Amino acid sequence: MDLDLEGIIQCIKQGDENGVQIQLQEFNKEYAQCFFFDSEERDRRKFRKNKVRDYDDSDSDCDQYQQEDRGLVLRQNLALVLVRFVRTGVKCPLLKVSLRTLRILSRDKKVLGPLVTDGALLTLARLAGLTAGDPSDEPADPDSDFYDHVIASLAEAKVLPRRSEEDEGEGAAEADDDGGGGECFVEDDVSNADSGDLDGGGGWPGARAVDDAQGGGARHKALERGRRDRRESKPEREGEEQEQEEEEVEGVPPGEEAQRKEALKVLCNVVYNSTWAQERFSGLRLMCGLRERLSSGAGGSSSSSVQFYELRLMFLVTALRRELSTQLQQEGGVSIFTAALESCLGVQWKDQYECVLDPAAPPISLEASQRVIEILKILFNITYSSHRQEPSEDDAALYRHLVAMLRVCLMRKCLLLDDTDELQGHTVNLLSAMPLQCLDVLLTAREEPDSAQGPGVNMECVHTLVLFMERRLESGDKMKEKLTPVFNLLTESCRAHRETRHYIRKHILPPLRDASHRPEEGSTVKSRLVRLMTHLDTDLKHSAADLIFVLCKENVSRFVKYTGYGNAAGLLATRGLLGGRGPGGASGYSSDSDSDTEEYRQVKDRINPVTGRVEAQQPDPMEGMTEEEKEEEAKRLIMLFNKLSRDDIIQPMGVDSEGKLVPMLGLRDNSLTEEVKSDSENDGEAEERQKSKP
Q: What's this model's pTM, rounded to 2 decimal places?
């Protein structure tokens, strides 16, 4: 579809709002699912950069390049025109269509120039309900000179010769790498015509300023197709049919909620794609307006879909700007979003830190589950370091209140199984950020009939966490991202709570009976965990090994018994436990013994400690050799090892006094040094005794 920008501008100048709306609706329909405007051009540039072509581009290629360049210019100028247009008091149906067009354009980083100015951000914030500014306070629509400049620049762009390959090569590649921040406009006339009024005197930053602001393009991820909003599973519809389906909120004019939602979507795209917009979000105090909206939104002043995008915007801001997440925490963000979580879940309280869990309650609705997930993500952003700190009495009470609701998130089901898994995943992430002393709320809930119980505690949550871990182990997808949080949570919980450790150990490390297979063989939870102990990813293998090690009460011999020395060597070497001595912290565990089963005792002497299983009887390789032959064979092996060591093919290692691997040469030097030191001390003592004699 060819964008008739000149036709849109003419309709605006003539006051033909119906004509503007029709053309924008056609654009929105054409590009509703478009997330890459120039992907083919980018692929061709990559081809030209990596391949050598023996022939020049054909005329058709030249025409296509010129057409794509013109398409980029049209989109850039369309964004510029619409940002100005939505400030002029446009009626609601046309305003909603215009915002939807801006939302589609904001997916392209090369078009963000007009959208990251202070004036544009304030306009979008006002339309989203984040500020209470009056449209009359913003720059009024200028005379036709502004639009005449745009039309003139487009006319000049039509006759501009195609850039040479040399100009296109290096510069275009750099523009693609940094998100296209410097390609805001092709024509200087367009930006100059706009600079006087666009920001109400300040002017938009211009090409160089936006380049600096967006120059952190290396920090931007490549724009990927987003997951479609499942609350709008049907194709987007325009006109009365869609307006009839809009949620109605008491006291809010019809259509205003749809306008807010579209403006919030534009802000989400702009903040995600532009570091300059992230910085200005703080400088323009939009964070305060968003926080106030979410504080009042807990009382039902916003529709569920609008509140979702308000939460999504807050998540993006707190995830991308660490100083803003710290600011939000200091301004009571935990209390605000704990209240929002309570409102979304409709929690009823049984006790101070215990919520009512009705097994017959309906599953969490799709809209509510999506909002709850966004709230959990925001809470994680502002509390991710809380587990390392000692909370005050008030903070501890707040965190326990939050953990009680996280227990509901773990136990409740959603309409869709995928939603339930995602909700539990984000709940686990947030639980791993909570102070350990506040997690006892998960165990102190009153026992219900048919619930998993431990000695005097309720183990329903622990059981749910174990089942959640098993599902993640079976899926095998994105292992590190999905398994590391639950491993760390279970490990720290087992360290802090004896009842949790006993319960999980029964499920993961039952008493050994069959030692005929390697520990990593099979489909049990223990087997899968042991396999992960030798995974290529260091964080994943250490978190899996830590969990089993804590279940073994950090006892080295017990750890080797369940995993085999070959699988356990990595963690033992990292912690300096190769000598077999347990860490000092192991004394904090109870003194109950690990009794061996009768089946294990019968084969214990025949188990290979390296593989962790009973090995078949092997013939003696030195059987029939005389003592002289054995000595010669030993000398030959020593010579081979020495040769391999001298050629740096292998490096003989030993275990030092601290239980860590060190080269044998260093170990020998340390031994000699200690012997000399010991001899000198003995000589000194002998001299002292000699002098003391009369």
A: 0.77
